[in-house]
Design a protein that fits this description.
The complex is a heterodimer of chains A (91) and B (376).
Chain A lengths: L8 E4 L4 E5 L4 E6 L2 E4 L2 H7 L8 H12 L4 H13 L3 E4 L1
Antiparallel strand pairs in A: 1-5, 2-3, 3-4
Chain B lengths: L17 E5 L26 H14 L3 E5 L9 H11 L2 E6 L6 H10 L3 E6 L4 H8 L4 H13 L4 E7 L7 H10 L4 E6 L4 H5 L1 H4 L3 H18 L4 E5 L19 E4 L5 E2 L20 H7 L1 H4 L17 H4 L4 H8 L15 H10 L6 H4 L12
Parallel strand pairs in B: 1-2, 1-8, 2-3, 3-4, 4-5, 5-6, 6-7
Antiparallel strand pairs in B: 8-9
Helix pairs in contact in B: 1-2, 2-3
The chains are: A alpha+beta (91), B alpha/beta (376).
Chain lengths: 91, 376
């Protein structure tokens, strides 16, 4: 697997879907026979993982939106999301 | 604050997030471990397409989002593509749970076009001999071809293998087969003893030693493949001392609709006595889920007895499985006897103990009962 770095372009993994669920008041990730309800920060990150933005761009956008230094947190979450196969990296 | 200890008041449950449509009990296979009711051939006519589409709309409006399409063999329904298309348009994540029989390239292309998200393909074993014996069919090559088609259509490959005494020693080979096929997920689902599996329990329950070897093989395989392949190993709970949190509590997240329209809080719940399960032909999903006495019967904690009542673990396991409590103790409100705090736990230990004996049902030549249409 390609290593995650700031130039990577993460995208929601094949077979996985991210959508807003009004009944749960949250974004959820749907995958074969499973579902994860996302908190607001996880959703803010994953909705930007479109295979076009680089990790650096995702971090930049979030830092401008939330006026905070978030690089470390975002990278930690993306690493976890890759381990769980929620994301894949676009070559 | 007062120090009174009270039962948690019944809370309005969340929506039925997980909807399972058992579209038909018809199936070309005759698996000896099927959980379907053993009297399925006597159960009334299947819902028609319009009924299924209405069920989808009503459940989705409540918040249902994960959809399983199962059976029997769901491909036996010619309207499967229309059902998938409607589900996809409504925003469900659609899972087809299939033996692969009937999944031609033409149908797979049509299902992909309709928006099907994922296919779970069952295998009975890594060998043709056991696969074909257990399903009482010649389907091993067919399933292998279907597995290749699933990859060709770029679906995540999810294999489900029901594990029991006759194939548990092949777990290493089964995992190797899954790896060759490019599986992303493998479920090694130890048989749960309901329906046909209950009838065949003596032949299907593995020994503790077999189970230990299978767990070791699974662990070694996991260490080798890492996150490339996810392996779910569902333990046979007869060897446990704490019950499974069955369905996360009846009527909490899971709603199954049987082929005849009966709404059930668990696919095995039809067997529970004294509950008038509602039918989607007579009532809408909202009133079934929130208001029907059958769905409210085992919600909350008021139904619990000792040792569940007051047990610090009751919020974690909900007293285990109601069907297992009924099958083994004769009363669904008892604690699941898998729990070693249950006064009936010795029944489970005794069953697990029989699996250790050399003079066991297979050796005695007790026949395996294959799922068929004769009334039981």
């Amino acid at each position: 697997m390609t290593e995650l770095d700031v130039a990577s372009r993460p995208v929601i993994a094949r077979g996985t879907r991210l959508q807003w669920e009004g009944a749960q008041g949250a974004h959820v990730l749907l995958y074969p026979e499973g579902m994860v309800k996302l908190n607001a920060s996880a959703a803010a990150i994953l909705t930007r993982c479109d295979g076009a933005r680089t990790v650096a761009e995702v971090i930049g956008e979030l830092e401008r939106t939330y006026c905070a230094e978030l690089g470390k947190d975002v990278l930690a979450f993306l690493t976890l999301a890759l381990e769980r196969n929620w994301l894949e990296l676009r070559p | 604050m007062s120090a009174q200890v009270e039962e948690a008041p019944p809370k309005r449950p969340g929506p039925p997030l997980w909807l399972l449509l058992e579209l038909t009990y018809r199936c070309p296979l005759h698996c000896a471990f099927c959980y379907n009711p053993t009297d399925f051939s006597g159960i009334g006519p299947e819902l028609d397409t319009a009924d299924w589409l209405r069920v989808l709309r009503e459940a989705r409006a409540l918040g249902a989002v994960q959809l399983g399409l199962s059976g029997g063999e769901p491909l036996a329904r010619e309207d499967l593509e229309s059902i998938v298309a409607q589900a996809h348009d409504l925003g469900f994540y659609t899972n087809l749970i299939t033996s692969g029989v009937g999944l031609t390239e033409g149908r797979l292309a049509a299902l992909k076009e309709a928006g099907l998200d994922h296919i779970q393909l069952s295998f009975q074993d890594s060998t043709r001999r056991i696969n074909d014996f257990l399903s009482s069919t010649r389907t091993f090559e067919l399933k292998s071809r279907v597995a290749a088609l699933i990859k060709k259509y770029r679906y995540p490959m999810v294999l489900n293998v029901v594990i029991h005494r006759l194939n548990i020693d092949h777990v290493e080979d089964i995992l190797a087969m899954a790896e060759r096929m490019g599986a992303e997920y493998v479920e090694l689902a130890n048989t749960q003893y309901y329906g046909w599996a209950w009838l065949n329990r003596a032949q299907l329950l593995p020994s503790r030693e077999q189970l230990r070897r299978a767990e070791d093989a699974t662990r070694r395989f996991r260490e080798r493949v890492g996150s490339r392949m996810r392996i779910f190993f569902v333990v046979p709970d007869y060897f446990e001392t704490r019950p499974k949190p069955c369905m996360n509590g009846l009527g909490q997240v899971f709603l199954a609709i049987a082929p005849d329209g009966l709404a059930l809080p668990c696919h095995a719940a039809r067997m529970l006595p004294g509950l008038a399960f509602p039918n989607v032909r007579d009532a809408d999903i909202g009133s079934i889920w929130y208001d029907s006495p059958a769905f409210n019967r085992y919600r909350g904690e008021a139904w619990m007895r000792d040792p569940c009542r007051g047990c610090p673990e009751r919020a974690r396991d909900f007293g285990g499985c109601r069907c297992q409590a009924y099958l083994l103790t004769g009363d669904a409100a008892n604690a699941d006897p898998v729990c070693d705090r249950s006064p009936y736990h010795h029944l489970v230990s005794a069953i697990a103990g029989t699996a250790e004996q050399a003079d066991h049902a297979v050796a005695r030549g007790q026949p395996l009962l294959f799922r068929d249409y004769r009334a039981r």
